[in-house]
User: What shape does this take?
Amino acid sequence: MKKKTRKTTGVKHCLECAICKEAILNSATLECGHSFCKCCVTEHFKYKKSCPICRKVLSGGYYPSYSLDALIQHLLSPSQLKRYNVRKSEEASHVNNARIGMKLDVLDSSGEWRVGWVKLVVDMPDCLPFLLVSYQNGCSESEELIAQNSQRLATFGCHT
Ligand SMILES: [Zn+2]
Ligand SMILES: [Zn+2]
Assistant: This one.
């Protein structure tokens, strides 16, 4: 039998997201009562409208739990908190609720971040919208259709 080592500084198992196995970030509590990271759950709901733990079929809604977020941060060790904050700032740079005319940062095909703007928001069934993004690429203007949650898009000013 394996000897169980008790982590004294580890995040308590119940505060871990069952999807990414990390400390729950921006907690999203489902109708069944289970909590996950908001980004993990939105990704999961694109494929399955059920709880990853108890398999209960759900409508796809969730609630934030600020006290759970605060509790998790309180229980993290300094190194875990560092990792948590990196994840948090990455999450914050994700584009949300894009509107036509909104400025954002776009990673072009050569790997440079450019300032772009949203020309069109294309709503997709069952997933986040795609954005028709226009940006200056050297002396020419490029247009590309990119998923709103793509790593190639970030909130304006995050990289430019
Ligand atoms: Zn997660
Ligand atoms: Zn559940």
About this structure: Residues 13-92 form a domain with the Herpes Virus-1 fold (CATH 3.30.40.10).
